[in-house]
Amino acid sequence: MAEIEDQGPVQSRNHWLFVVAILAGSFLLFLVQPMVARMALPKLGGAPAVWNSAMLVYQALLLGGYAYAHMLGRVPVRMQAGIHLAVLAVAALWLPIGLMRMELPADAEPAVWVPWLFGASIGPLFFAISAQAPLLQRWYSAATGGRDPYALYAASNIGSFGGLIAYPLLVEPMLALKAQSWLWTGGYLLVFLLVAGCATMLPRKPAATTHVPYESPAASRGRVLHWIALAFVPSGLMLATTTFLTTDIVAVPMLWVMPLGLYLLSFSVAFRESDAIPQLIGKFAPVVLLLFGATLIAGHQKLAYMNALIGLLLLFLVAIACHSRMYQLRPAPDRLTGFYLAMSVGGALGGVFSGLVAPVLFDWTYEYPLLILAAGALIPQTFLLPVFGSLWRGEGQALRIKILATALLVVGLVWIGISNPLGLFGGMHEQIAFLAVAVVGLAAIGRRVPYLVALAGGLFLFGGYRSIEMSLADARTRSYFGVYTVTDSGDERRLAHGTTLHGIQLKGARSRMPTTYYVPGSGVGLAMLALPEIYGPAARVGVVGLGTGTLACYAQPGQSWHFYEIDPAVVTLARESAKFTFLPQCAPTAKISLGDARIRLTEAAPHSFDMLALDAFSSDAVPMHLMTSEAFQTYGRVLQPDGLLLVHISNRFLALAPVVAAAATKGGWHAARMVYHPSALEQNDQASTSDWIALSRNPRTLARLTAGNSGWAPLEPRPGFTEWTDDFASVVPVIRALNPSLADD
Predict the structure, then answer these.
(1) N or C: where does the chain have the smaller number of CB atoms within 10 Å of the terminal CB?
(2) CA 324, CA 368: separation in Å to the nearest integer?
(3) Average pLDDT per 10 consecutive residues for the chain, totaling 745 residues
């Protein structure tokens, strides 16, 4: 080892070892997060308090790893290598990776227990791996005689992107959790060997340029804050884009992968020696931000997929522009750990703002337009044409007058677009006003203040003012699960969760009438009407998923009803706000248990219900832990031996029948399926096509339900489909778009 190091800087043929080590470490870092989440889901449930706490644990460990890498910069690089290899070796005591075996108290507080469980289970491993990228870049610079190491950050983010894509597309569909754990363990041991190999290339005697920890001057406080701001906006915008697209544009499974993937790839484009691509993107980013940022806010459903593509393009360009500016402002290599620490702080703050703070502060995704404005304030700008530069030439009073005149012009155009005075501009008044505002903004690119005025005007005009109107009308409710919008149309009131309809209540004399997926002719409707015949007048009914409370209007005197709902905002809408009255009118004494249904059902006594209806799978985010074989064992435990289980599988994107069929076969259930298509007359009463599966462990009970109705058909297992378990589950095989054979399933 000494002979290698005394020879001076490492030869270029060995540079690949640093690249591979950084790439492998980042790959593991992004592989561990979804893997541990899958491990924790059956134990902890899907409540937001759980995953918010988990997010904070990840952010704290990542910041800790970057801070540790920064502190190691105070000692010589060979000592850094010895310390870090020791840290990696100690962390290896936590292998194979997984959650600790422990039983959480029934009244466990997520804010306390989740950080403790995650920190004690994976904390040392996550901490040690998170320090890889900045540490190895510093070592690379020392091993190569001071070469610029920042381009290696591209390898780090390519590795992160690889881990992000590999888990849902390859690892999860092919491996059970135990095998995933051993795969990650093998990867960790490989990283340890790669880091040790990199350590052999470090010079034993410090070069003249590296005889002190810091040779270059420290960054000013303003520069550090600038780094943090440049990292804050893309990180926050990445999460805000994910929330906005799934809430107001289109709800597609695994859509979250694309914003995060583009965010990671932006580093690979921005952190490179050749700045031709970043410069080109930086020149057009203000144009795209102005033209498409406001258009996206309008959220037109007829162009949902195009708007989704625009949103992803917008995020990618903004991220490249901000990260390129960070790269231009990077310090000398001896200060790189402080630079990455500031970047990590900004990224964490952006995530906390969009993921934790915004759902509490706002009733809509207002963080998205706010971050668009922040991006406009940060990304570099140059005049598009020399004539525009001449227009804005000048300083002092003359420039302030031009800016004020621009602001007044934009305000006037926005007023015209909203009010359409005298109907002069017909039905296109908003579009005409927006084009005029956009022209002003394009002419202002290069002068930040008037550009921001035009950008704000476009955002307000093209959707912003309508969102504010709905907020003032108290039509929206927001929680960590998304945005719920209540709208009135004629004689009906609707509840939408993002783009997914969750219930309709008719007004007046028909207010007790079940609608949408729950009409009397649907699978669940027939089951509810058959309750007295099958179980007598004192039937016990459990429902997972409250929604607007529509099913409550099947309740009859003598029956007992128990709803399970994970989102407090839904309970407020259905029971306390008076916006929907199914529950107060039809089952005012029904019990509601708040929290993850699977965990709450484990607390219930055996044979608590005659019927249990599962209605939690119609949105884009399917709670997988409610569809595993172990979950169906829980349902069987709380049902009486002759009990009925109804599962609602209507879903635009996922074919869930094979999942239920496999669980039924594994658990000894008998199952029948009804895909109900309402008549034209029923559609006038807001009946919807629905897909329900009825299961019972007693074939006679199922026969009593399905007798005399040709709509029921036996549920046939799908050949070759593997049942979901707590150890193995993947949505990839049931995504309709990826599996054409499931199009009609």
Answers:
(1) N
(2) 21
(3) 42 75 93 86 72 76 92 90 96 92 62 80 94 91 84 86 90 93 96 95 65 70 96 92 68 70 89 74 86 70 72 91 91 89 93 88 89 94 88 85 93 90 77 91 93 93 83 85 86 84 89 94 96 96 94 96 92 90 95 92 96 79 86 97 96 89 96 92 80 96 92 92 92 82 69
What is the dihedral sign for C-alpha 273, 277, 280, 282? Answer: negative
Dist CA 397 CA 242 (whole Å): 43
Cβ-contact 551, 615 below 8 angstroms: yes
Q: What is the distance between the alpha carbons of residues 681 and 354, in angstroms, rounded to a whole number? A: 44
Give the DSSP letter of residue 725. Answer: -
User: Quick one: how many helices (H) and strands (E) in the chain?
Assistant: 29, 12
| pLDDT number for residue 661 | 96
Global pTM value: 0.85
- Closest CA relative to residue 229, chosen from 325, 315, 122: 325
Secondary structure class of 214 (helix, strand, coil): coil
Per-residue pLDDT at 8: 46
pLDDT at 423: 75
Round to whole Å and give the CA distance between 393 and 60. 47
CB of 514 closer than 8 Å to CB of 525: yes
Cα distances (Å, whole numbers) of residue 641 to 87, 598, 606, 635, 701? 54, 19, 10, 11, 10
- In the sheet that holds 476-479, the strands lie side by side as 476-479, 482-489, 492-497, 500-506
Contact call for residues 562 and 597 (beta carbons, < 8 A): no
Q: What are phi and psi of 342, to 5 degrees?
A: -65, -40
pLDDT at 738: 79
Parallel, antiparallel, or unpaired: how do β-strands 482-489 and 492-497 relate? Answer: antiparallel
Give the pLDDT confidence score for residue 205 in this predicted structure: 66
The pair of structure tokens assigned to 446 is 């290069």
The DSSP output letter for 447 is S
Query: What is d(CA 240, CA 372) in angstroms, rounded to the nearest whole number?
Result: 10
The answer to whether the Cα torsion of 123, 125, 131, 133 is positive or negative is: negative
Look at residues 404, 425, 548, 421 and name the one whose alpha carbon lies nearest to residue 487.
548
Token digits of residue 12 = 């270029």
Query: Among all chains, which residue has been given the structure tokens 């305000």?
Result: 411
The amino acid at residue 650 is: S
Side chain identity at residue 534, one-letter code? I
Task: Give the end-to-end CA distance of the chain in Å, rounded to a whole number.
Answer: 62
pLDDT of amino acid 251: 55
Burial tier of 235 (Cβ tally within 10 Å: 0-12, 13-18, 19+): buried
Q: pLDDT value at position 4?
A: 36
φ, ψ of residue 717 in degrees (nearest 5): -65, 150
Alpha helices by DSSP H, 420-522: 429-444, 448-459, 465-472
Alpha helix (H) residue ranges in 668-729: 680-684, 699-706
What local confidence, expressed as pLDDT, does residue 577 receive? 83
Beta pairing class for 639-648 and 609-614: parallel
Q: Where are the alpha helices (DSSP H) in 176-303?
A: 177-199, 221-244, 257-270, 276-298
The Cα 76–Cα 74 span in angstroms is 7
3-state helix, strand, coil in the chain (%, to 5): 60, 10, 30
